[in-house]
């Protein structure tokens, strides 16, 4: 969940920064991450929600992988001790 919140807030902050300091015109790197992304306040909120979900899924996958590797490592370590 933390990765989802962090990624969502990052996208929101990046969108606002680009809108305020660059005028929000033209193609940006954010549109590469999310096709159809425009520099508007509504799209900033929609992008934040989509990024929150993407970050949550990615974080859950990484946590699942870590747990699987930890189980494999723990199993092999206890077998060597006994």
Task: List key phrases describing it.
82 residues, mainly alpha
Plain-language structure description:
- This protein is mainly α and 82 residues long.
- The chain has one domain.
- 80% of the residues lie in helices and 0% in strands.
- The protein is built from 3 helices and no strands.
- α1 runs antiparallel to α3.
- The longest helix has 41 residues, at 41-81.
- The protein is elongated and about 55 Å long.
- The two termini are 38 Å apart.
**Rg value:** 19 Å
Q: Indicate the mean pLDDT.
A: 81
Q: Tell me about the biggest sheet?
A: none
What string gives the helices and strands in order?
A: HHH
What overall geometry do the principal axes of the alpha carbons give? elongated
Number of distinct helices: 3
- Spans of at least 5 consecutive residues whose pLDDT stays below 50 are none
Rounded to the nearest angstrom, the distance between the terminal CA atoms is 38 Å
Structural class: mainly alpha
How many structural domains in the coordinates?
1
Report the strand count: 0
- Beta content: under 5%
**Helical residues, percent:** over 70%
């Amino acid at each position: 969940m933390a990765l989802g919140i962090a990624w969502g807030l990052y996208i929101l902050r990046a969108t606002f920064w680009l809108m305020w300091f660059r005028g929000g015109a033209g193609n940006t790197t954010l549109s590469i991450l999310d096709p159809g992304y425009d520099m508007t306040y509504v799209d900033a909120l929609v992008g934040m929600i989509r990024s929150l979900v993407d970050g949550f899924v990615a974080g859950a996958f990484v946590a699942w992988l870590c747990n699987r590797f930890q189980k494999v490592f723990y199993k092999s370590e206890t077998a060597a001790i006994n």
